[in-house]
Amino acid sequence: MRPLTDSIEAFIKSLLEEGQEQVDVQRNELAQYFRCAPSQITYVLSTRFTPDHGYVIESRRGGGGYIRIVRLREEPGSNLLYLINQRIGSSISRHDCDAIISQLCESHVVTENEAGLMRAAVSADAINLPVAFKDSLRASTLRAMLLQIAGRAQKEG
Q1: For all residues of the chain together, what is the average pLDDT?
Q2: Phi first, then psi: what are they for 139, rounded to 5°?
Q3: How do residues 29-79 score in pLDDT, each as one tens digit?
Q4: Which of 98, 77, 89, 86 is nearest to 140 (CA)?
Q5: Beta strands 55-60 and 22-25: pairing type?
Q6: What are the C-alpha distances in Å from 13 to residues 8, 42, 54, 82, 104?
Q7: Which is nearest to 8 in space by CA: 16, 26, 31, 51?
Q8: How far apart are the first and last CA of the chain?
Q9: How far, rounded to the nearest angstrom, does the alpha carbon of residue 103 sit from its chain's CA centroid?
Q10: Any residues with CB less than 8 A from the CB of 27 and at least 6 apart, and which?
Q11: CA atoms within 13 A on the CB side of 103
Q12: Confidence of residue 127 (pLDDT cuts 50, 70, 90)
């Protein structure tokens, strides 16, 4: 059986896969549908539909309020400079690194095989250093890979 958070995420993504760039949902209606607390819906939205994952959330409060989930559809490589300059910084956690790689794969900037290689390069097994240095080396490695991908995107574009 799937965890509830995975089911909520899959449901929302299925709404977006119907060719829509955005979808409006009501938190309370989703909570009723999944028989859960509205805070579960909020948790899924705030952890799985972030800019790192390729989404932006807009909300409108009030009687006719809604939550709008917008999928970022950018040209391949156009988000790379943001990732390199703003998101990675001098260090990055394994979790955040995985989120970025997954978003690159979902938006077809990299293939499944390339994403697998990227994950292997930044894995704990590949980075055999004391904990204090792992996130820093992971950031440098990911930044170098993204610069290579950005260069490829410019050549192809």
Answers
A1: 82
A2: -65, -45
A3: 999 999 999 999 999 998 888 766 777 788 877 666 788 888 765 554 456
A4: 89
A5: unpaired
A6: 9, 15, 12, 24, 16
A7: 31
A8: 43
A9: 4
A10: 38, 41, 42, 67
A11: 26
A12: confident
